[in-house]
Specification:
The complex is a heterodimer of chains A (about 325) and B (about 300).
Chain A (H helix, E strand, L loop, with lengths): L1 H28 L5 H6 L5 H10 L6 H13 L13 H36 L4 H15 L2 H15 L15 H35 L2 H8 L4 H38 L5 H11 L2 H29 L7
Helix pairs in contact in A: 1-12, 5-6, 5-8, 5-11, 6-8, 7-8, 7-10, 8-10, 9-10, 10-11, 10-12, 11-12
Chain B lengths: L9 H14 L2 H23 L31 H37 L1 H15 L3 H16 L3 H27 L3 H8 L4 H38 L10 H8 L8 H27 L9
Helix pairs in contact in B: 1-10, 2-3, 2-10, 3-4, 3-6, 3-8, 3-10, 4-6, 5-6, 6-8, 7-8, 8-9, 8-10, 9-10
The chains are: A mainly alpha (about 325), B mainly alpha (about 300).
Amino acid sequence: MILRLIAQRLALAAVTLLVVSALIYLFTSVLPGDIAERVLGRESSAEQREIFREHLNLDDPVWKRYGVWIADVARGDLGRSLVNDETVTATIGMAAKNTLFLSVFAFLLYVPVTLILATLAALSKGKVPDSLISVATLIGLSLPEFVLGTLLIYVFAVQLSVAPALSIVNPGDDLATRLHATVLPAVTLMVAMAVYAIRMLRDNLIDVLDSEYVRMATLKGAPRRRVVVRHALPNAVGPALNITALNLTYLIGGIVVVETVFSYPGLGQVLVEAISVRDVPVVEATALLAAAVYIIANLVADVLALLLNPRLRTP
Amino acid sequence: MSVTAVDLPVAVRRSRLRRFLRRFPMSARLAALLLIADVLIALTCPLWAPYDPYEAGTGLPFSGASSSHLFGTDILGRDVFSRVVYGTRYVLFLALTSTFIATVIGGVIGLASGLAGGWIDETLMRGFEAIISIPLLVLALLAITAAGPQASGSAVLLIGVVVLVYTPRIARMARSVAVDLVTRDFVIVARARGEPVRSIVWRELTPNAAGVLLVEFGVRAGYAPILISSLGFLGFGVRPPSPEWGLMISENRAGLFTAPLTVLAPCAALALLVISLNLVTDGIARALGRSVERTP
């Protein structure tokens, strides 16, 4: 039963990914005007453009080009950048590592901050800490990432000069240097993710704390701390898993803005640059990667929820 | 037969409105005042803004705050106060128009899809699901790329992008409401009576889904200024001389050290607008007895 459900989710995720890849390809292929002229410039000769079109098989119908592209992608070949003729894999490889580093850093900050603040708010429901956290999260979710990032730069880089305004990293940097360089963007991303999760986890926790098994545990004389940590939290975290999956996707969108604010050499920067010079293969690869992360994160959250739900465990 | 708002006598509707207002929390009332102020600023700013927002050289570049330039001047010597004030027009107009269009289109598609059921519903929702799995901002950037350089920067394109990004999300929400409603007696009766689909959607589903859609509109309208100004900040929003807040923040970042107000003022304007939109939405939701679900 559970295996069948998991297989079903897997198949669904694969189909969604395929549809998404087609959508992305369609988006980047319906570009009005002559792509050859746009890449090579107005001064290019008709001959040059012809070679370029031939090189990219631009005279084939869209569905045929999509077929070739998706078959290549499935084999791990993302094509070549139109700008520097390097493979897309090489272009986005280093950037992907940087983005992964920043995401993991932000995520490691996000988990404890969310757990602590949500528990604090739920335990002081209706009192001062709860209201303060509620106001703070509302303000947090009303601030765009670039505003939040700019404010952090203003306070910590301009006024206090304790952190760098630009996140410049070099391949040979050690961990401490990297952490120092990326602390402001990581905090920006952490705040942007945590505000949603704190609100949700707080509401869940309040419901769970009111449930019979928690009251039962309290009546049996379990200490308050144990009741919260062992009985209430695990049951409240389940529904919050979904929002964490959503947050991971958000990370990909938010990271585009945050990397631009701090000039951090990651995937977001690569995407923004590729769009401004219309480097189609790089745009396609980055967008596909972003969607794949979303779909996989959701799949993992779904499967985890299936595995954690005791009612589904027995056939 | 459904009881729609249209059928109710005026007195009942008036007392409903009074009850709604009584339940409207204080924070939301203050936020509503701020929103009204924003609308008034947008409408009347040409009458009282001290400078033309496009006029360069009204003072020394990044000269800082003074009595003649409340928020200082930017790198071209334009008056930042006038630009912030004029910026209200762009953000309010673009955000509200696009969210409204998306709510209407998404609402109708979602309700009709939930009512239709079967393979139509299945196909539509799978398609929307696929669009939703492209992160919001990445999808917006893809759409801007697809539109080509001629269209980039135009208000129509930005509205179109927000509509494209929002419609599947709103449709999914409306559809989940419709799926719940179609099992109710009044819809079953309407169907048995042979009412056409258009009439069921309009007369039976819409009045009952109105509350959810209103809250959804508020949540999306609260995010639209963020999306639009983020695009402006990245350089894919409205074209450069325009006084749009996201664009201004990006342009004035060089002056963060010497004239911080040129950056902080548009930041504050944007944050205040979004906070008031969110508080009003929370207030409406509470007065209607609904919950607000905000997902990233």
